[in-house]
Amino acid sequence: MTTFFDAPKEDVAKEPDERPQVITSLGGGHGLFQTLRAARLCSPNQINAVVTVADDGGSSGRIRRELGQVPPGDLRMALAALTDDADTGGVWENLLQHRFGGHGALAGHALGNLMIVALTDMLGTSQHALDKIAELSGATGRVIPVCSEPLDLEAEVSGLDTDPRLMRQVRGQVAVASTPGQVRRVRIIPEDPQPNPEAIDAILNADLVTLGPGSWFSSVIPHILIPEVVEALSQTKAIKTVVLNLTSEPGETAGFSAERHIHVLRQHARTLNVDRVIIDSSTLTSPSERSHVERAARTLGAEVSFHDVQEEDARGRFTSVHCPAKLSTALLASYAHARSL
């Protein structure tokens, strides 16, 4: 049965054996970046970032078109999130994220993307390249592409014609994320890709698995369109937690409620089951809204918990970004509660 609770700030696992020792986070982009920063604050022995590989824009798009490699942008961002906070780690984060300006061949490329490409050529696989950069940068975890081949994203979109019932196919991650229509469903191409075995192992051997936040259709859902990933999620003994977005995003999820975000997860993976759904406590305040979310979460077999997880700016105003420290507290409290059941 789905339950709600607003966890007090002190309701956090404090003993080492109450904390997850292995955290595996699925996602991509800025949402995964914040989640990984939160995961580091949970003090696990191992963090695994399982990253989507469907990006086709900017530097990543150019690299996959010209070289046929997996798009490195989201992989690079995950590496940057896992670099040490010490002076050396700060240099590595800035180095990985440095983007060339100007108007020449390098314009727009991130240095970290080029490092991943170069080491992939030298070492034979993107996984070896990512592991080497993690070693050199002193990263506190491991970055794992969900597949070893680039994926394409295709969406059914309504609202692009005068007749709102008409559906059009929109292909490509950038096109899906920026469509002025409403995304109804997405699929990946190829439809049954070979997953990275390291990604499956990271899910099976975790104590805590997180999914989201992030661009819902282009960074979160692609993971659960891979059958072996959903199977691993059903087999793992980990506590599985969905971290819901703070707001809907212009384009792919414009106008989506929290309830709708949960429903589309079920729509795309009918056998998906999770334990927890974390929602920002200021996002839903009315009893009716919480009741709707309760019903939606029940379809995933999940309980819902509300926490303050929003970042604040210098003036104390809430932003649309998850705060790593607050999210860490929420993850630990949710993990401890789920383990106690």
Short description:
With 341 residues, this protein is an alpha/beta fold. The protein has helices at residues 29-41, 58-67, 73-82, 87-97, 111-123, 126-137, 173-178, 197-204, 216-220, 227-235, 258-268, 287-298, 324-340, and strands spanning 22-27, 46-51, 142-145, 152-158, 167-171, 182-189, 208-211, 239-243, 276-280, 303-307, 310-312, 318-322.
Order of helices and strands: EHEHHHHHEEEHEHEHHEHEHEEEH
Range of helix content: 40-55%
Low-confidence stretches: 1-5, 7-14
Count of structural domains: 2
Gap between N and C termini: 12 Å
Notes on the protein architecture:
With 341 residues, the chain is of the alpha/beta class. It has two domains: 198 residues; 91 residues, no CATH class. 40% of the residues lie in helices and 18% in strands. It is built from 13 helices and twelve strands. The chain has a seven-stranded parallel beta sheet, with helices on both faces. It has a three-stranded antiparallel beta sheet with strand order 5-4-6. α1 links the parallel β1 and β2. α1 runs parallel beside α3, α5 packs across α6 and α11 packs parallel to α12. The longest helix has 17 residues. The radius of gyration is 19 Å and the shape is globular. The N terminus is likely disordered.
